[in-house]
Structure formats: structure tokens, C-alpha cells
Amino acid sequence: MTARVIGRHAVTHTEPAIAMLAPPPGTPLMKFIVGPTIGNPSSQPFPKAANPGGFNGDATIEPGDPLRPHTPITAAEIVRTRHFVFDREDGAWTINERFFDPDRDDADPDLGTAERWILENDSGGWVHPIHIHLEAHQIQSLKERPLEPQDAAKKDTVLLGPDEVAEVFMKFRTFPGRFVFHCHNIEHEDMRMMGVFHVYE
Ligand SMILES: [Cu+2]
């Protein structure tokens, strides 16, 4: 399946701001053309990928660059296990009995290493879709149901139903720095169900 943009709404500086945010109904924005091959409507060829299939060193990509392939993380790569419990306290939402603090690091993985994260829902009947920034995670097991074929794909969110415990592998491949993980229910993430992991070089 391929897609290309053939037109988009152009706004002028004389339009009020609200019109720029909400173009009128029926305004052509984008068209997807589904076909067997990738089309290039411009007269210029796509730039050649600096490192096809791999990482080109500065993390920039160009049109036509392939994404990095999905590579399973193996148990032999795991250097550490971390356990995060998602619960509720004092009318707000906690991870390991703590509310979100943007100045606190809740995990400190080393760049280039892989870790096992145990994500546990201990909040009764509530459901928490746990979203981890920076890297895709790989689900190894779920307590409440057998794995399905789609569980083996790249994941940025794992759904914790009631009493669910997810075992996921994370690998911190490219970027050092501070990133967050959080419940993706807006009411929960806004009420402090979020943590920081700091990837150290
Ligand atoms: Cu939640």
C-alpha cells in the first residue's frame, strides 16, 4: 500500500485564526492512492538512503529511507528487570505508589542495553493503556490472556485490563535523555499516572 499527498488546504495571512484551525467542510486535505508500487509525482528522484535498512548515525531520515527492521529482543540481552505497579491513591493515579514528578527519575537505564519491564495493574476494575515513549516495546507475556500474533509487532502501548500483568522487553538503542511513560487514559495521565525514565550514556 502506498500513499502520496496530492493537495492540501492553503491558508492566507488574512484569514482569521479560527479559520486556519478549522478549514470549511469539504476542503480537500489529502488523498491516499492505494497501489502496488510507490509513485513519485515529482521530477526529482527520491534521495538515496544513507544507510538502507540501518541507522545512519545522526538519526535523520530522508524520503525513501526504510525504517529500521523489527528485531526481536532476546532474553540473553536483558541486563535488568524493573517492576511498575499502576494503582490509585487519594483520588489520583500512581505508579509504584508515587504521583508523577517531572523532576524525579523513576528508572535509569543505560543507553544500548535491554531491560525487562513488568507492568502490573493493581487498581481493581480499572483499565490502563500504558504508553512508553522513545522506543517500541516487545510483549513477552500477559497474565490474563494468551499472546496473539499481533502482540509480536512493535508496540508503543500495552493494555492493562483488570489484574493484568504484562512482561515487556525494552531496548534503549539510540537516544540518551529523559522520557516518560504513562497511562494513556487522559483523565489518568492528567491525574499523575506518569513516570520518567532517564537513559544514560
Ligand atoms: Cu489509567
Short key terms for the protein model shown above:
201 residues; globular; 4-stranded antiparallel beta sheet; disordered N terminus; single chain; binds copper (II) ion; mainly beta; 9 strands; Immunoglobulin-like
Global shape: globular
For the largest sheet, list the strands in their spatial order: 2-1-3-7-5
CATH class of the domain at 75-199: Mainly Beta
Helix/strand/pairing category: mainly beta
What proportion strand?
25-35%
Report mean pLDDT, rounded to a whole number: 82
CATH topology-level fold name of the domain at 75-199: Immunoglobulin-like
Q: For the CA atoms, what is the radius of gyration?
A: 21 Å
Give the CA-CA distance, first to last residue. 38 Å
Number of strands: 9
Number of helices: 2
Task: Name the CATH architecture of the domain at 75-199.
Answer: Sandwich
What ranges have pLDDT less than 50 throughout 5 or more consecutive residues? 1-16, 45-57
